[in-house]
Amino acid sequence: MSDEEEFDEVGEVGAYQQVLPVGARAEKSLGLLTQKFLKVLQEAKDGVVDLNIAADRLNVKQKRRIYDITNVLEGVGLIEKKSKNSVQWK
Length: 90
Description:
90 residues, alpha+beta, Arc Repressor Mutant, subunit A, three-stranded antiparallel beta sheet, DNA-binding transcription factor activity, RNA polymerase II-specific, RNA polymerase II cis-regulatory region sequence-specific DNA binding
């Protein structure tokens, strides 16, 4: 990240607040995508998210990025797979 990169948007996930960088590359970052995915998960009925729907809703062209996020969240014990294409809070 460069010293000249602007920060003007505030993102919230749960009790955490973070200033989000502005710019084309920053808008595609895995960290920002994770925050957006967590918001989708928080808003989901019964805490269950279909990964195909989440990928469409987040406008993700490569589902691999969603799988990367879910694998890490599953690894740290925050979510679990409910079926092949859906996850839920643990």
